[in-house]
Amino acid sequence: MLTDQEKWYFDHHGFIILPQVILGNDIERMLELGDRWHGMTLEDLPHPLTSTADTHPDYSPTIARWINHIQYADPVFQRLVLNPEIMRVIISLTHSYPVLVDTALTKNYRTSDDIHFHASGQEYEIIDDKPFAGFLNAAISLVDVPKGTGFVCLPGSHKRHFQPPVQTEISIYDGMPTVINLPLMAGDCLIFTEMLFHGARRWTADYPRFTIFNRYRANLPDTSPVATYGDLEGSKDLIPESVYELQQPTTSAQPKRIVQQIVANALKQKSPVTKVV
Ligand SMILES: O=C(O)CCC(=O)C(=O)O
């Protein structure tokens, strides 16, 4: 499912960019809903949407706020979590056992807080000659992200053979080659392992930044069950069976039906092209 070039690139950098994974009409709808929800208080959000930003331990009035569980509110976000080009990479990096654990639509203003370097998860390795990532983030930008603002990372830091001295000595504003910043076009998707040290610089454009972060964990057979975040069982009827299945822990030695279906479809398509930064 990943080309040799993509495997090399992801292993080397800890991220990969998939250009133009969503179309203009879908982006417009996502922006319209995102803007509406970001204008609401936590109590006014349509059930089961929430904002764990509002109750986060690091909460500040200028936190880059996010809205969770957006796939329960509109088919456009259901299409996104099943997007074949994104899922091709997620399925490959989770060795066919992904669980969608979280969705979040973030809005950044020029007044939003910086996001300093952080990383999580402990699983990045090569298994059977293929990169395996236990915790992945698919960040889809809904607006153009100019150079110098937005996502930054320490490329290669996901390998973690040594701890980087990030807290005190490396700033998100440091430059190349240690820190790299990734400009994106609206509709591009950046997939990174959460083991990669990453953060975000202050937003500088005169329009807000909207980004969707869809997070997936790997749940290989015979490992502890991985569950989606939040108590969402009661809202099951709001999402298609395929999305529901993607959110469930692994219960059999066979990949989920939705995974098998995406793989079968992908194998019929031509190899896609990823952007090399
Ligand atoms: O805004 C960004 O691009 C970074 C977001 C981030 O650090 C995260 O989702 O963990």
Name some characteristics of this structure:
277 residues; alpha+beta; Jelly Rolls; four-stranded antiparallel beta sheet; 7 helices; 12 strands; binds 2-oxoglutaric acid
SSE layout:
Blueprint: H1 4-13, E1 15-18, H2 24-38, E2 66-68, H3 75-81, H4 84-93, E3 98-108, E4 115-118, E5 124-127, E6 130-133, E7 135-141, E8 150-153, H5 166-169, E9 180-181, E10 189-193, E11 198-201, E12 209-218, H6 241-246, H7 257-268
Antiparallel strand pairs: 1-10, 2-3, 3-12, 4-11, 5-6, 7-10, 7-12, 8-9, 8-11
Helix pairs in contact: 4-7
The site of 2-oxoglutaric acid has 10 residues, from strand 7, strand 8, strand 11 and strand 12.
Could you characterize what this model shows?
The chain is an alpha+beta fold and 277 residues long. The protein has a single domain, classed as Jelly Rolls. 23% of the residues lie in helices and 22% in strands. The chain contains 7 helices and 12 strands. The chain has helices at residues 4-13, 24-38, 75-81, 84-93, 166-169, 241-246, 257-268; strands at 15-18, 66-68, 98-108, 115-118, 124-127, 130-133, 135-141, 150-153, 180-181, 189-193, 198-201, 209-218. The strands form 3 sheets. A 6-stranded antiparallel beta sheet has the order 1-10-7-12-3-2. Helix 4 crosses helix 7 (257-268). The protein is globular and about 45 Å long. The two termini are 21 Å apart. 41% of the residues are buried. The model has no long low-confidence stretch (mean pLDDT 94). Bound molecules: 2-oxoglutaric acid (AKG). 2-oxoglutaric acid is lined by residues 115, 137, 139, 150-151, 198-200, 211, 213.
